[in-house]
Amino acid sequence: MAVLTPQKVVLGMSGGVDSSVAAKLLKEQGYEVLGVTLKVWEEEDETAVSKRWQERGCCKVGIAKHVAELLDISHQVIDTREAFQQGVIDDFIGGYLQGTTPNPCVRCNERVKFGGLFQVAEQLGADFVATGHYATIQQDKLGRFFLARGRDTQKDQSYFLYRIPAKWLSRMLFPLGSMKKPQVWSEAEAMGLPVEELKESQEICFVTQGDYREFLKEHAPQATNPGKFVDNDGKTLGQHQGVAFYTQGQRKGLGIATGNRLYVQHVVPDLNLVVLGPPEDLDTRTCRVADLNIFSRENLVEGELLDVKFRYGSLPVPAKLHWEGTNAITLEFETPVRALSPGQSAVFYQHDRVLGGGIIQAQPACVKSSKSPASGKDAQLEPVVG
What are the distances in angstroms from CA 164 to CA 31, 47, 122, 172? Predict the structure, then answer.
């Protein structure tokens, strides 16, 4: 009787609880698991034995190696720091300097993580690529593979995965997609992993200071470039530290006392201005989305409603879709949506199915001043993109 050769799967192992449990599940399902840790940021500090694992670098290579030995699977570390620097960190810094709010996790999945894993899969002749993301791969009635939400609605990570090329979907596995987080923790405990050490990362992996502003100050000193806070009429309200340190909808940390609640409306990098205004001015009924990655173009029908998610932790909102040629979409909301940030992702859903998404574009904005340039005070400011 012929012995079936197990299918090979390259698994991204970050050293966290999710990828560790994913390795266990894939091994139990009969796959030959090839563990791969992509080193994207700092070196592990092997000498700092007093530190807990999650404080020794974002990848936690030590735990990934331990899990691989525990499960008797292969494991290798691949240095992708250069690709991560160029595709994620430089994009992150450049986005803030240009007045947008980039999402590094989306860019990492697109430009580094899955590309790196699929490259290894090709080299090793693997059948699949897997990660510990909370999402699912399903098939429609025509047999086409599509990305969908994970079962755990609180942990679903499909928002971060919408830029994956459609051609890869048939070769992707998400072992945790049908599980809820408490089940995953139970599996980790059963493996003997130090779950008290494996706290979940809620922040950007390379921003170890806890605040992206401190990261910018260290890695992009040019971000500190004081300028004016102004209102929509161009009236000076105070001085800001640099446009990179302010995001749309921000209220805290402005240092402005006017007696009214003021929020960042938008920034104008070319003029080094941060425009402030009341909260109601943040409401919008339209949004332009470009830099698209679409899985199901036939399901994005002109004028029809779909669900759109603008932030990982927020609920989707209904919007009517209008195509702008083939490379951009305008969304029209039934009710106003507040503080949409250029640079963030808008992801389109049909029930649980991810149809695709794109990057929110800046809206045209005009900052004006009623004061005459001849007065030596605030000069007239031309219409700009904010």
Answer: 23, 37, 17, 10
Digitized pLDDT (tens) for each residue of the chain, 386 residues in all: 544 678 999 999 998 899 999 999 999 999 999 999 999 876 444 444 444 544 444 447 888 999 999 999 999 999 999 999 999 999 999 999 999 999 999 999 999 999 999 999 999 999 999 999 999 999 999 899 999 999 999 999 999 999 999 999 999 999 999 999 999 999 999 998 877 766 665 567 888 767 899 999 999 999 999 999 999 999 999 999 999 999 999 999 898 887 889 999 999 999 999 999 999 999 999 999 999 999 989 999 999 999 999 999 889 999 999 999 888 999 999 899 999 999 999 999 999 999 999 999 987 655 555 443 333 344 344 433 33
The fold for domain 223-280+374-385 equals SH3 type barrels. (2.30.30)
State the sign of the Cα–Cα–Cα–Cα dihedral 286, 289, 293, 298.
Answer: positive
Homologous superfamily (CATH) for 8-190: HUPs (3.40.50.620)
From 59, 108, 287, 366, the catalytic residue: 108
Question: Parallel, antiparallel, or unpaired: how do β-strands 8-12 and 128-130 relate?
Answer: parallel
Catalytic residue among 58, 59, 105, 205: 205
Q: Radius of gyration of the chain from Cα atoms?
A: 23
The domains of the chain are located at: 8-190, 223-280+374-385, 281-365
Domains 8-190 and 223-280+374-385 agree in fold:
no
| Residue 58: active-site member | no
pTM above 0.85, yes or no: yes
Residues 6 or more apart whose CB falls under 8 angstroms from that of 152 comprise 134, 179, 180, 181
| Fold for the domain defined by 281-365 | Elongation Factor Tu (Ef-tu); domain 3 (2.40.30)
